[in-house]
């Protein structure tokens, strides 16, 4: 066995385990107590104190002005893209090296992804690749001239057939205007030949390592493109001392069972925007107007609110977050030392100016043959490892998408392996 020494080392890190998973949750605090409280009080569903408490904890921890809990990270991303103004037929820039949820959420909005390459050290969107694609492919126009040419009036709204069509502006009208004519300024980025708006850019903080998000936001600001940060994997990760997910107009987190902390399933929308924060809450809670007994909804909303039982888990997990992060960092340092002495394997360290949560440690093998051998040997020996995702532009449904040169993404996909990264606290 070529990689026996590494398998032995992994077994020494996670002793007493027959099967070593990639990332398992750690429950050691108030989880059972808070869950029992939900059951005892019968508040297990969409009403209860833990949702507010969990949102407060995330707001305080990340520094975001608004944190809105959702059923999962994908739902959070869907809402964030809608609120950023993504409309059917638009283009949304993202990276090919990401989990399918990023592109699924873009598709739920009726938009199409455009893929630009990642940096080799962060594995997140490359600002240079982004700028180069924008320079070659994008015009910045006045919104008026674009609309004169392209936007047809919506029959349902203009003829009064829509129940949402009211004389006086309401909160729904605000939502509608956010979703239908939401361009944040009087200028809009348009693809030069397709003449379609580029209505958002979604960089991702891959495996918890922050990307160069400040530069990405600067570039997008020049093109009037809102940034929605997919920080699903990066709770506890900072770039230049600021929490990931708080640089863009909106950001999202995931609390799926495989993440640094979990609510079973869960997500969060983050924003500093005083208009979009309350709107995110409204739209994710079926757009119900507050009233003690009446059920009145002022738009078509979403049932994306996180149930109280899941939020209860989240509160208990947040109490453990610092312990988990410190432990994961220790493991990362052990990996770094181990792989420093192994010539043909490269450990992916914390990128510059960053504090990573080290969600999933990653190594690069020499080539795809070595990657296959490593994956086979470890998995056959009950040590779970896995390659990066198949690149999004190679999946059937995104094959025809616009894409820039993706050399770095391809290189990473053909060499990368994620290795066990659970907290070693049990
Ligand atoms: C990059 C990325 N985006 C979005 C998601 C979606 O999160 P969820 O599984 O909570 O829907 C995940 C993780 O699962 C992810 O890794």
Structure description:
- This protein is an alpha/beta fold and 426 residues long.
- The protein has a domain at 31-318: Aspartate Aminotransferase, domain 2, CATH 3.40.640.10.
- It contains 14 helices and 17 strands.
- The protein has helices spanning 4-13, 31-41, 49-62, 73-84, 100-108, 127-137, 143-150, 155-158, 171-180, 213-222, 276-284, 308-340, 368-380, 407-415, and strands at 66-70, 91-94, 112-115, 138-142, 187-191, 198-202, 228-230, 238-239, 242-243, 250-254, 267-271, 346-347, 354-355, 361-364, 386-387, 402-403, 416-419.
- It has a four-stranded mixed beta sheet. Strands 6-2-3-16 form a four-stranded parallel beta sheet. Strands 12-14-17-15 form a four-stranded antiparallel beta sheet.
- Strand 2, helix 5 (100-108) and strand 3 form a beta-alpha-beta unit.
- The longest helix is centred in the C-terminal third of the chain and has 33 residues, at 308-340.
- It is globular and about 65 Å long.
- The protein binds pyridoxal-5'-phosphate.
- Residues 72-74, 77, 98-99, 101-102, 204, 230, 232-233, 254, 256, 267 line the site of pyridoxal-5'-phosphate.
- Pyridoxal-5'-phosphate is lined by residues 72-74, 77, 98-99, 101-102, 204, 230, 232-233, 254, 256, 267.
